[in-house]
Amino acid sequence: MEDTEIIELYWQRSQQAITETDGKYGRQLHTLSQKILYNQEDSEECVNDTYHAAWNTIPPKRPEFFFAYLAKIARNFCFGKLDYQKAKKRDALVVELSTELENCISAPDDYTRKMESEEIGRIISEFLHTQTEQMRKVFVRRYWYMDSITDIAKAYNMSDSKVKSILFRMRGKLREHLEEEGIVL
Amino acid sequence: MRGIDLLKDIGYIDDSFVQEAALDVGASKVKKTIQWSKWTRWGSVAAGFVVLCVAAVALRQGTRSYDATESASVDTAAVYSVTDSVTEEVYVEEAKEEAKEIANGASSTTTSTTTESAKTEEVSDMAADMAAQEAGNKETMTIISEYSKTAEVDGETAKMEVSVCYATPEKGEYFYFYELEEAMKAYAGQAVQYYVTIDVFEEGEQLTLEVIYGGEEVYDKNSPLIKEYERLLAEGYEVIIEEDELRGYFTEEELKTFAVNAEYGYAFHFTEEF
Prior knowledge:
A: Butyryl-CoA Dehydrogenase, subunit A, domain 3; B: alpha+beta; two-stranded antiparallel ribbon
């Protein structure tokens, strides 16, 4: 079923909407959640929360990019749950990616949050607009979808070293962009 | 800011980027897969099997018609009317437009009678043709950077995706990917240049560019691929290093008589295909 048809089911308040959403995107949402939480039960809960959130927000919303809309909700739920679980040992992947991204920040240990996440997201979007499509996709696969270097290399028919090289450059450029936008502490 | 915060905040980027990367991965299921491996060597060159599949994506259509059944292993029962799709940069047209503008500009001081207007038109066409001729052979060549076939399936235009398994080229040998080979057949004898990527292999392993980090990023000048790039430049080929790849503009003749380094094997393909 096309995304527009599924969204129409939400608008008609048909519970079939959830079934269709799960059938089409459930596996991808679950994979994403699992990468962040590294826990089957919590991941399942986040995906279910995502469906509820979609049910409660469509209508009035009619998302242009339905999967991105769902995945963003799921990702936020997952990180929220990660905060809740922060006393526990964090998933190794999250630690790895966080460490990589700290290279984009001038003073990671002296953090005082001054901007809202949405604003920082907008600034990062500005930066991504200036990048080539290929570089952008690699970046998004790594830091949004949290894919491994090897998976990205396979998806885009590149060598692992090329993926690493692209990410290295982009982190450097992102650091400069963030500094220009005043995200320097 | 901590890394974990930035990782969370990346979650707020435009939905379009998220969708773009998601769609791409979905598309990769029907996209051509290319495997380089020693154990799949089937001799000197090329394609072992070819599977043509159809993906329903809108494409602009070319002008020539084929019967798709001429290709090997067409994986569908439908009968297609196939057309070529090609990306071109035609410098001749640009030269003509430029010349027309010059001619029209010069004519602005003349009278505006119908006869004179017609004459101006004629002059501008002549000027355009002369400009195109003067531009020389290479400048007036069409650049081919992509080539694929499309088919009509249930009234929709669909791109025919080709899945090919290639053998790694042996020392001193080279071959073209399926799409490039098809393009070379379609444009045989015409004034075109092919914009391609050249994969270079040594003992079955693909050469890659090593980047030296620290302050400014630079390529390692001693890396074999940079040496090969320099050799090809010295041979007179129009090659460049772009996005960590060895690429170049080649005529049909240059591709057919490519001067190999006996230590390496080469695979030529359109840049967009990888």
